[in-house]
Write a sequence for this structure.
């Protein structure tokens, strides 16, 4: 299995630009999580999907952030407009059975907003 | 709210020696899961080992083992025969239902 796939691996953009991060979960996994990692706040859960439906988005920092999961094999996290404080590593993780099985993480996307 | 505490920001170990990383957590639940994840310089989060709270037996994965003390809410990771490739940031994590809570991490250096 290829594991969780994220793209791009690195993204550098200017403040105000739109950024889209992509994730392909492990085949057969029906739950997907987006996390953000910063030095100041550590790892934070942003949003969680179960069977393509957003279940809990309470971790999404503000309206500039949005996430979608149009099908079981693809999810996006969009930031519009981006700000320098959004600079972080964004991880996607998936699990077969939420609350029971282990979450497997993708390689992350390092986002730098200038 | 659950909290996970890793009191050792940095640790070092000589190659081939054994090192123990500490983790404590705070919860009022009795049914939960505990994990150790490894994050090498590549930034990927790699599962090292997992422990179900209802199991008394400590989990073991090759050179990695845990000391799970449920009453003390302690979950330490022991790495035996340390290798250079073990150098990474190690995160302890607690999961109850869908919520996964991470500690602040311990940076492990392996000295040749």
């Amino acid at each position: 299995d290829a594991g969780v796939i994220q793209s791009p691996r690195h993204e550098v953009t200017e403040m105000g630009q739109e950024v889209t991060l992509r994730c392909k979960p492990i085949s057969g996994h029906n739950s997907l999580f987006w996390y953000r990692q910063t030095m100041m706040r550590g790892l934070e859960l942003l949003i969680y999907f179960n069977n393509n439906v957003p279940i809990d988005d309470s971790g999404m920092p503000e309206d500039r952030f949005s996430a979608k999961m149009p099908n079981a094999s693809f999810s996006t996290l969009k930031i519009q407009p981006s700000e320098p404080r959004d600079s972080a590593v964004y991880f996607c993780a998936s699990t077969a059975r939420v609350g029971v099985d282990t979450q497997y993480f993708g390689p992350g996307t390092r986002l730098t907003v200038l | 709210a659950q909290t996970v505490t890793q009191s050792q920001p940095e640790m070092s170990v000589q190659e081939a020696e054994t090192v123990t990383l500490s983790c404590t957590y705070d919860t009022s639940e009795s049914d939960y899961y505990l994990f150790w994840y490894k994050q090498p310089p590549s930034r990927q989060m790699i599962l090292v080992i997992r422990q179900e709270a209802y199991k008394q037996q400590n989990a073991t994965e090759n050179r990695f083992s845990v000391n799970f003390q449920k009453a003390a809410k302690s979950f330490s990771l022991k790495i035996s025969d340390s290798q250079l490739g073990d150098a990474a940031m190690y995160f302890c994590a607690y999961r109850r239902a869908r919520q996964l809570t991470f500690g602040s991490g311990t940076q492990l250096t392996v000295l040749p």
